[in-house]
Design brief:
Elements: E1 3-9, E2 13-18, E3 23-28, E4 31-34, E5 39-42, H1 46-63, E6 70-75, E7 78-82, E8 85-86, E9 89-94, H2 99-105, E10 117-122, E11 131-132, H3 134-139, H4 145-168, E12 171-178, E13 180-182, E14 188-190, E15 199-203, H5 213-216, H6 222-237
Antiparallel strand pairs: 1-2, 2-3, 3-7, 4-5, 6-7, 8-13, 9-10, 9-12, 10-11, 12-15, 13-14
The protein binds uridine-5'-diphosphate.
The site of uridine-5'-diphosphate (UDP) has 14 residues, from strand 9, helix 2, strand 12 and strand 15.
């Protein structure tokens, strides 16, 4: 597989074309941004850790029957993935109230709701990824009600599998963000990284965050947290 032109440079990844129209190459970056690029930094070793973590998590989901874009890890910082047509929404799955939900609704961070909460956000840097609902998504022509139902069902299945995996690693999966695409046959594909950049991960014992909140909230030991997650996941998967 040959790496060809750069298709897109994101905040934490570069996406390249390959000599197959069905494959793309993802290269993780050490860059970290928050609050829509207002806060920026470089976190040493993040690309390597995120590549390792996303490889383990997406590989585990593939093995458990979830259709993800992940094909294989190519080197320490890059992955070969399926090319898909992206659906321009972010799905946020919440098991514990934190972050924007805590702030917006005035609920204490750490509150555990009885149900799993699914947020839908429109992917738009200009608009700041606004929260939308199913009716907005249908009106915008993003997905039909049936397709949204499939997206929620798949997100719930992903959540169940991830909660189980992270529990084995002594980590409470608080929330995470995922994106989907459609493959060449129209099938739904999970097409996103799953890393401490996009998940809230709290140590079960201490409640300490092991994720990007350490960077967002200037808590220090960011690199160490990502390394800890990679190590614990590796142990959990090899138990
Ligand atoms: N998240 C993300 N990308 C985004 C927005 C959120 O990866 O553009 C992740 C975030 O890391 C957290 C979860 O989604 O794990 C919920 O984020 P929230 O809505 O609470 O927003 P935040 O507090 O990060 O502004």
């Amino acid at each position: 597989m040959k790496q060809l032109e750069l298709l897109h440079e994101g905040k934490s990844k570069m996406i390249y074309a390959t000599d197959s129209a069905e494959r793309i190459m993802i290269r993780f970056k050490n860059d970290a941004t928050a609050f829509y690029n207002i806060k920026r930094a470089t976190i040493e070793n993040k690309a390597k850790m995120n590549c390792a973590i996303s490889t383990m998590v997406l590989g585990y989901l593939n093995d458990n029957g979830v259709n993800t874009h992940f094909v294989e890890r190519l080197d320490e910082e890059s992955q070969l993935c399926k090319a898909v047509k992206h659906i321009p929404v972010e799905v946020i799955v919440r098991n514990v109230v934190a972050g924007s939900m805590a702030k917006r609704l005035g609920i204490a961070e750490g509150t555990v709701p009885e149900n799993t909460i699914f947020d839908l956000c429109l992917r738009s840097d200009e608009l700041g990824d606004p929260l939308i609902n199913d009716h907005h998504a249908v009106a915008l022509g993003i997905a039909s009600y049936e397709e949204l139902a499939e997206i929620y069902e798949t997100s719930a299945r992903i959540n169940t599998l991830l909660v189980e995996l992270y529990a084995k690693a002594g980590i409470n999966l608080v929330d995470f963000k995922i994106e989907f695409g459609r493959g060449s046959r129209g099938e739904l594909v999970l097409a996103d990284e799953l890393t401490p950049d996009t998940c809230r991960l709290w140590d079960v014992e201490s409640g300490e965050p092991l994720d990007k909140d350490r960077f967002r909230r200037d808590m220090g030991r960011v690199r160490e947290a990502y390394e800890e997650v990679a190590m614990r996941l590796n142990n959990a998967l090899n138990k």
